[in-house]
């Protein structure tokens, strides 16, 4: 019957209907030759369309089903006389658009590919041909109406946590005042010429050098995302992004990267750690490697500036918060002394202890026979009455609790709740300072801009194999001029001052841009930096 229809009506039917009939006749042939319905749909989708044919296959399937039941093509519901309203008001347009969007893999939906599909597939298939093709603005508007949002993903975190109340509280209450305090004792590089300004120090005060830490990865096959090509040219892209080069490094205003150079300018000591995880059995970056790196970095600082104090700035990652093996953990403890429980370190009962008479007293965590103490003993030595309290809740404490059990009560005490991480301990034991950046504030870490600068250059250079990639990465990381690094650092200080002035978000970013006196970095590279920052 399809063939009959085709013969008789091909003259009178509009092109789109003929196309539908042709598809159906192909479909019927395949089906009669033993293809399953789904295979036949897919087969046709591949013939008629390039790329991912899932959506098209579904349309073919739906069309075939309709024809089977009604023995004619579906009647178009669209009334072409009323197209002054948005096409999206049409239910079938809306459904088909939504259906097309859901068949795209996650992260691949873009206004421009929706625009293309609307103009070349979705609307024509519904028998609708707009007077002029839909614009990219329309596609973007439809995406938003249908619930899609442009989202920036960084290290697997959805940005937008910027203004969480605990983040703001930490930023304004702890981080910014502490940094202001440190900045007063720092050497500054100011103005368009980055003139060096020494800090006014009172007697006995040490000058401070700030080191900003971060980790970054370079993939062996990372290449620039936009290319200039002649019509019809196809770039040869390698599959996947290739082996990994992982760097953990520090930057500072004094030397750029934290290195010691000899009289000829050659690097003789370097604080960076470069690893190639996954190749030659190189282990992944972990807390132990970071601690070893920080110890080496402290030694380099002490050699460069024996009379200066260092402030080490880290982000709040789990590696940086790792507690020592003898840390105090209330939930690891048993109710009574002895038995199978970890020995924890001795401490002093904090000055915030609710029962005043015990404040400042030493708290041994083992009994006189050397057995680890249990929850009951430790709490009683803090002065608590725990006779009517159970040891621990099972399986976990209730979400909103207030003194539900001994373990919870002890875990809330200052000596248990606010312990120094191993990282802080190493730094403070060496006579230096350590501070953690507020979460979601990569604009306050200038090394992020340095990574952006390096990555932009790294991507421009072609890297035929991994050993070349390694060499290029290290060369690029060493090629950033110290003036550029100083400007990156000034950029972050400007953000801090903007936040102190009460500016936030876009306003702060605008103020920081306004104050910039020189653009030493190319526009294209700035875009890369912007993409790292935002
Ligand atoms: Zn509890």
From TrEMBL:
Parts of the chain that traverse the membrane: 21-38
InterPro entries in the record: RNaseH_sf
Keyword Transmembrane helix annotated: yes
Lineage, highest ranks first: Eukaryota, Fungi, Dikarya, Basidiomycota, Agaricomycotina
Record protein name field: Tc1-like transposase DDE domain-containing protein
A GO term, aspect molecular function: nucleic acid binding
Span of the signal peptide: none
Record keywords: Membrane, Transmembrane, Transmembrane helix
UniProt KW Endoplasmic reticulum keyword: no
């Amino acid at each position: 019957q399809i063939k009959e229809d085709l013969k008789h009506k091909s003259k009178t039917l509009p092109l789109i209907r003929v196309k539908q009939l042709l598809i159906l006749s192909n479909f019927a042939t395949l089906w009669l030759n033993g293809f399953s319905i789904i295979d036949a749909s897919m087969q046709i989708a591949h013939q008629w369309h390039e790329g991912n044919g899932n959506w098209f296959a579904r349309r073919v399937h739906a069309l075939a089903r309709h024809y089977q039941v009604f023995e004619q093509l579906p009647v178009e519901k669209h009334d072409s006389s009323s197209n002054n309203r948005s096409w999206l008001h049409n239910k079938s347009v809306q459904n088909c658009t939504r259906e097309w969007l859901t068949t795209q893999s996650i992260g691949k939906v873009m206004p421009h590919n929706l625009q293309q599909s609307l103009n070349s597939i979705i609307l024509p298939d519904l028998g609708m041909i707009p007077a002029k093709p839909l614009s990219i603005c329309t596609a973007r508007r439809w995406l938003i109406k249908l619930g899609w949002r442009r989202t920036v993903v960084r290290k697997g975190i959805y940005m937008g946590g910027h203004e969480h109340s605990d983040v703001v509280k930490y930023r304004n209450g702890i981080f910014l005042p502490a940094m202001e305090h440190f900045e007063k004792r720092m050497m500054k590089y100011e103005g368009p010429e980055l003139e060096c300004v020494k800090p006014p120090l009172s007697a006995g005060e040490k000058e401070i050098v700030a080191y900003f830490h971060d980790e970054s990865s370079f993939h062996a096959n990372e290449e620039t995302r936009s290319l200039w090509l002649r019509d019809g040219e196809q770039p040869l892209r390698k599959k996947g992004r290739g082996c990994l080069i992982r760097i953990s490094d520090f930057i500072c205003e004094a030397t750029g990267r934290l290195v010691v150079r000899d009289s000829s300018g050659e690097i003789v000591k370097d604080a960076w750690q470069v690893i190639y995880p996954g190749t030659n059995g190189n282990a992944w970056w972990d807390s132990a490697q970071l601690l070893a790196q920080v110890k080496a970095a402290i030694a380099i600082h002490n050699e460069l500036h024996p009379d200066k104090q260092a402030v080490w700035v880290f982000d709040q990652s789990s590696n940086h918060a790792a507690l020592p093996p003898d840390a105090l953990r209330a939930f690891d403890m048993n109710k009574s002394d002895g038995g199978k429980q970890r020995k924890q370190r001795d401490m002093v009962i904090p000055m915030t202890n609710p029962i005043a008479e015990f404040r400042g007293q030493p708290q041994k965590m083992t009994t006189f026979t050397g057995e680890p103490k249990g929850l009951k003993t430790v709490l009683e030595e803090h002065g608590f009455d725990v006779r009517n309290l159970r040891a621990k809740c099972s399986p976990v404490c209730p979400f909103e609790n207030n003194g539900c059990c001994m373990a919870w009560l002890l875990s809330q005490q200052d000596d248990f709740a606010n312990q120094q991480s191993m990282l802080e301990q190493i730094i403070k034991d060496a006579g230096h300072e350590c501070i953690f950046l507020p979460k979601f504030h990569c604009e306050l870490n200038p090394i992020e801009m340095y990574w952006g600068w390096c990555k932009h250059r790294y991507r421009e250079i072609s890297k035929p194999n991994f050993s070349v990639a390694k060499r290029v990465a290290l060369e690029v990381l060493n090629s950033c001029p110290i003036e550029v690094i100083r400007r990156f650092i000034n950029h972050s200080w400007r953000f801090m001052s903007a936040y102190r002035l009460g500016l936030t978000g876009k306003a702060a970013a605008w103020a920081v841009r306004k104050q910039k006196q020189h653009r030493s970095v190319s526009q294209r590279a700035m875009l890369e930096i912007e993409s790292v920052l935002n």
